[in-house]
Amino acid sequence: MGKFIKAFLLTLVVLVLASLVGVFYVGASVHHQDPLDLVADLTSNKRDSLDFLLIGVDSKDKSQGKPRSDVMMLVHLNKTNKSISLISIPRDTRTKIEGRKHKEKINHAFAYGGPDLSLKTVNQLLGTQIPYYMLIDYEFVKDMVDTMGGVQVDIPMEMNYEDTTVGNSLIIHFKPGLQTLNGEDAVKFLRFRKGYKNADLGRVQAQQQFIGAFLRELKKPEQWVKAPVFLAKYQDNADSTIPLSALIQMSPILAQMGEDGLQSATLPGSPKMIDHLSYFILDEDQARNLLAAQGIL
């Protein structure tokens, strides 16, 4: 395969991968730049890093009315170090949400005001100035995994859950151990909530493990030729405010990233029951230290 074709396909794979782990997004919903503005931005604005909020939503979950964010991660791309940092925000994190009288769980922000309010709430909670968001739906994850031929995941424990409600049916049965998940099972693995010993934090670790497994599979050369199919799959299931110029400038990271280039962490804090509801209470001092260490503050 010629060098140009190989480089082109690899770039497509990089762009597709971004829609899951928050590296980049190119699709029908991206905020496009005029070609002349794009060239000018690429030549005048040399980015060494890029920060944004990755939001995952399960549009098929109708159990709570309007969908709430199921995954929230701060993503930091470092072009100099050729690294990607993912910092998970527990969905039960207690915080103030604009327009609400009392503090609530941070994942409620999406139901009240979509990705814009989610991003604003995260910035207010952490004292950050993250400029962009990337929003994906679990349907995209399902389609991607099926197109790839499955993703190998280490199931940490026996997982059993059954909900036969009409319109919101979800049946999960997994045995522990290493196994290859198809798209439907991958989404079930990500949706599973009950049974983790450390509650929401255990689920966050499972999400991080899946992203790592997805990365390893997608970087395999046999996946490169599927890039055009990947692009078509996610156009209806993603949205992003990240400028195309920023995506292009950051695109070499995945191709050059080593095995230790992907770093995962979770905002520090502890669970607490308040008014019979389970919350995650952020440790603000430790959170600032973590964000500073990752280059986000």
SSE topology:
Layout: H1 3-21, H2 35-44, E1 49-57, E2 69-78, E3 83-88, E4 94-95, E5 104-105, H3 108-126, E6 132-137, H4 138-148, E7 151-155, E8 159-163, E9 170-174, E10 177-181, H5 183-191, H6 200-218, H7 221-224, H8 227-234, E11 238-240, H9 244-250, H10 252-256, E12 262-266, E13 269-274, E14 277-282, H11 284-293
Parallel strand pairs: 1-6, 3-12
Antiparallel strand pairs: 1-2, 2-3, 4-5, 6-11, 7-10, 8-9, 13-14
Helix pairs in contact: 1-8, 2-9, 4-5, 4-8
Tell me what you see in this structure.
With 297 residues, the chain is an alpha+beta fold. It has one domain: 3-Layer(aba) Sandwich (Aminopeptidase), CATH 3.40.630. It has helices spanning 3-21, 35-44, 108-126, 138-148, 183-191, 200-218, 221-224, 227-234, 244-250, 252-256, 284-293, and strands spanning 49-57, 69-78, 83-88, 94-95, 104-105, 132-137, 151-155, 159-163, 170-174, 177-181, 238-240, 262-266, 269-274, 277-282. It has a six-stranded mixed β-sheet with strand order 11-6-1-2-3-12, with helices on both faces. The longest helix is centred in the first third of the chain and has 19 residues, at 3-21. The model is unreliable at 3-12 and 17-33 (pLDDT under 50). It holds the Pfam family LytR_cpsA_psr.
